[in-house]
Design goal:
The structure is a homodimer. By secondary structure, the first copy, chain A, is of the alpha/beta class. Chain A has three domains: about 5-55, lambda repressor-like DNA-binding domains (434 Repressor (Amino-terminal Domain), Orthogonal Bundle), CATH 1.10.260; about 60-155 and about 280-310, 3-Layer(aba) Sandwich (Rossmann fold), CATH 3.40.50.2300; about 155-280 and about 315-325, 3-Layer(aba) Sandwich (Rossmann fold). Chain A is about 45% helix and about 15% strand. In chain A, α1 (about 5-10) packs across α3 (about 30-45) and α5 (about 75-90) packs across α14 (about 280-300). Chain A is elongated and about 90 Å long. Chains A and B meet through α4, α5, β2, α6 and α13 of A and α4, α5, β2, α6 and α12 of B.
Amino acid sequence: MAATIRDVAQASGVHVSTVSRTFSAPHLVNTETRNRVLAAAEDLGYRPNRAARALTTGRTHNLGLIVADIANPFFSHLIKGAQAHARTRDYHVFVADTDEDPQVEEELIQTLAKQVDGVLLCSPRLSNRVIEKLREDVPFVVVNRRMKGMSNVLMDVGSGAREAIGHLVSLGHRRIALLAGPAGSWTSREITDAAHAVPGIDLTVFGPNSPTEHGGLALAEAVASADVTGVLAYNDLMAIGLVEGLTALGVEVPGRVSVVGIDDIVAGRVSRPKLTTVAMPAEAAGRTAVDLLLQLVGAGETATPALATLATNLIIRDSTGPVRRELRTDP
Amino acid sequence: MAATIRDVAQASGVHVSTVSRTFSAPHLVNTETRNRVLAAAEDLGYRPNRAARALTTGRTHNLGLIVADIANPFFSHLIKGAQAHARTRDYHVFVADTDEDPQVEEELIQTLAKQVDGVLLCSPRLSNRVIEKLREDVPFVVVNRRMKGMSNVLMDVGSGAREAIGHLVSLGHRRIALLAGPAGSWTSREITDAAHAVPGIDLTVFGPNSPTEHGGLALAEAVASADVTGVLAYNDLMAIGLVEGLTALGVEVPGRVSVVGIDDIVAGRVSRPKLTTVAMPAEAAGRTAVDLLLQLVGAGETATPALATLATNLIIRDSTGPVRRELRTDP
C-alpha cells in the first residue's frame, strides 16, 4: 500500500492540510515544519497526488500532445523532440493520436484540456472555428497551421515545395504532378499554393489524398497514365507508396518519372531508389512548440501569441534524374 | 470562459455537491434532480472535471502506455492498436516514451500511476524488482516480458527466432551471427536462448546493442570480418542499419551475407533488398493488452493475472538467399 497524505501528517505531527500546503505552496510553510514534513514523506515513500495538487495549484506539470497519426515517422520525431525538451523543464508530455479523424481530435482536446497545463496540437484536421472555441479551455500551441492570434510553429514548406519543383525544372521536367495531402491540412494548402505559383510548368494536382503509403500506391495508375515526368508528393510515405506502385507497373523511377517526397523519414533513405525529399525539422519543431507553450502557461491571460517559422531544405538523392530526351518538351 | 460547476449549480437551483454527485455517483441523486442538473450542464456546455471526478470515483477513464521508443515503428503499431481498441471501451490512452532509459521509465510510471486507471508497460528496461514495487500503486499489464503473478502479453519470439534460423539453415548457412538487443530486454534474452538451442550451427552473439538503425550500422565491420554467412538481428531497424553498413563496405546482401530482421516494419518492406523478417503482431498485442488491463481495472484487488501469447511468423523476402558454394561448410 502506498503511503497516504494522512500517514505523512501523522508521522510529522501536523495537520493533513499542512502536508498538502508543503507540496502545493511550500513558501507558505515555515522552514522547520516543511523540512519535517518532507523528511517524513521521503521516509514513507509518499508522493503527492498530482491530480489533487492540480486542483489546488492549477498546475499539473503535464502537457498534452495531439498528432494526426503516431505511426507516421514525421510525428514520432516531433514527439521525441517535444518530450526530451519538456523533460528538461520538469514537464511530462502525454501523447494522443486522432487517427486523422477531426471528431476524435475534438474529443481528445476536450479530455486533455482539464488534465494538463497546455496542449500542443500538431497538423490539425479540425476547422479554425472549432479550434478557436476549444482554446478557451486551455493554452494551445498549433504546429503546422497558421492561425492569427495564436502561438504557431510552422515549417517553411512553401519554400521547400518551390525548391523541390525548381530541382525538377533544372532537370528538364515541365509536366509535373502534385499529390496533395488530406483535406483540412494547412501544409497541403501551402504546398499547392506554392506549386501553382511556379512559372513555366504544367501542373496537375491529384487529391486530396490519404497521407499514407497506401494513399501514394493508389495514385500510381493515374500518375502513370497522366502525361507527367516529375512528381512532388505531400509526404515521404505517399512518395514511397507511389514509387512502389510505379515500379509494379513497369514505370521506372527516375528513368521515366522523377519523384520527390517531403519530411525526410528513414524509410525514404533506405528505399530504392533513395528518395529525394524536402527535410522538415520535426524534432526542432517539437522543441520550439514546448518553449512557446510554456511561455503561454507561465504568462496566463496576459500571454502574447508567438510565431516561429523553421526552415526546410531539399535533399537530393536517387529518385530524381534528368528528363529523357524523347520525353522532353520545351514550352 | 468554460462553465463551472458553480454555474451549473446556480442554473439548476441545487448545491454544488449535488452537481458533483450527479456526475460521480448518479444513482445517489433522485431522477428529477439529476435530469435538471444534466439539462443545465448541457445548456451551459459544462464538462465535469475528470481530475476532480477521479478523486471521488477513483476512475479517470484514462490509460497510460509506456514505450521504450515512440519512433520505433514497432511501438507505433502497438500504440495504434491499443488506442483504437481503448476508444471502443470509452477509454483514452496517453502515451509516454522512456527513450530506452530505465530511470525515465520509473519516473513516468510514478507520474502516471495517480492519473490513470491502469498502465500498459511495453518492453520494459527496468528490473523485475522495481516493476513489482511500482505496481502496488496502479494496475499494470506488461507487454514483452514474462513476469509471474502479473498480467502479460507476450509474442512468441522464441519460435520466431527458431523459424528464422531454420530458414537460414535450409539455405545452407551454418555460421550464423545473432545481433542481440538492449540490456534488460526480455525479448532479446528469449531470442538468444532460442538461437543457442538450435543444433548444428556455429553461433556468434554480438551485443547487447542499441536497438536502432545506428546500432545495426555500427556492427557492419564486425559482422563483415566475422566468419559468418547468415545474420539474425534483434529487430528490423538494426537489420536495415546492418544492410546499409555491409553494402557500404562492398559486402553483398544476400550474395555474401543473408540478413533476417524481426518486427516487419514498413521500412523493411521498401528497403532494397526487401527484408526477410519475423512479423510481430504489434497491433494485436496492443488490443489484447488493453483487454487484460481493463479486466484488472474492473476487478480491483480480486483480479487474476492473465497471460496471452501471440504467434509470430516468418516472412521470406529478398535479404536471404542460398549460401555461396565457395562459402559452404558442412559441419
